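Everyone, describe these structure tokens:
***
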Amino acid sequence: MWSTALANAQLTQNTAPLALMLTLGLLHRSLRTRGFTLRRSALSTDTIVSLLVVLIVNVWTLLVLIPPVLLIRQSGYSFSSIRAALATLSPTPWIAELFSWFWLGEFVSSYWYVRERRSSDQMAGLWKMDCSNGPFGWRESSRPWARNIMFVATATVLTPLSLLAIYKGDVLHGVLSIAAFALFVVPAFPHNKYIESPHRHDGNMLRIALPTSHLEGTVYVLPSRDCGFEAVWSPKVKAEHLQTDGEIMSLFSSMRTGSYSLSEPLRRLRTTLSAYNERAILSTQQVTDLAEWLLLDPSSTIAGKPWKAKRPPGVHLIGRDLIYAIAHAEYLVFMRKNALPAHLYKKLGLLRKAERSGGLEVDSSTRTIGYKDGLPGYQEAVRHIYALFDENMDPAALSPPQISLPHSSALGRQPRSTEDYVGSLWMLCLEHSESTFSALYLFCSIWFIEVGNTGGFHIFPFQCLSHQGDRVTWQIIWRQGWYECILAHLIASSPLIAFAFAAGLV
């Protein structure tokens, strides 16, 4: 009986790892081509894949452990049979196995300490996010003692088993296991390419990547039924910043040199919003929720939710990047207008000029907010922004204080006063915009280039409560850890993969 069971187990031990290895390869390929969906309440792609890898690793470990256990029982627990059985354990995915338990500990603590991390930069649980080098710093973000325990535990298990395998004649797997573990600890593995994979955004996690030349920065998250408007610190994810870097950063560069035309901001903003719209996944209810919020509908379910951010003293809400985020929300609603109830559809003209936007049928008597001449038009748009966030009006936002103004390249003259500059610039922005928010965005962009962060203006008035990110950003950073430990195990398991890594092909 034991002989038959042992033969079957050894057959499974020899064939199952190949199937599991191919499964991991297909999973990797799927992530590179299909990408990730970021969610707040439901399980995101990162969480699903991580849990699936934990399952694969534990199944793999179990399949490797069964034959030695049967061999020991068949041989009557003799020392020679135990030594022979242990020598066969070298192919066990010890690195990934112990890493998976380390990740599970942090995964649990991320839910336990989420409130502390979102409001403070102090380390809570096993994690203090560090993305100064981009979305790869799982080592820097985890507690050193916890990480070292994982390394020591792995070395304690893996090293003697590898040496025993070498002693019993399996030199290749024994040496590769030790080498792979050394590469994992150093670390010597390249950065993963998952940040270049497509990233889609669920309706409850509409992350707006703000323009930045750094490897980390603020992202804004649009409000939903799960949470109000948020400012979140995040590593820079290349796929999310593709249009932001290609269009908006290029716009800023041309504006700084004065080589831009007034039609350029709207054209580049449209391209960016269109690309984001392709990545957004919204239900009919989520589109309705955003529309009710933007249109100040009394029945809005998300209007009263507190926003999670801080505002520096003396800074009002009329900031370039905040308007940029709101423009995303309005575009998402506009592109899904046919899913809206009739009473909301009829109000879309309040935020967008129908004659400048194809396919929008509204009452001709509807006047778009802010589309008035001079300072009163600007003030009307400002009041709408403050109503969105249920904030008391800042006088400096409504009537900017008198400041020393340079010659305006946009106006082509020297403004006589702040009121003259604001009113004239607003009329110019209305001529080259299609909506309330695109006009405000152009206004804030020109103000920043020509005047700067003065008079209460700031490019991003909502700033992060902490630099600890949220669960989405933590999972993005953990991708590198999974990539390293799985690659280490594949190198230990396959001489071909080890050769490919040494040749720079992996």
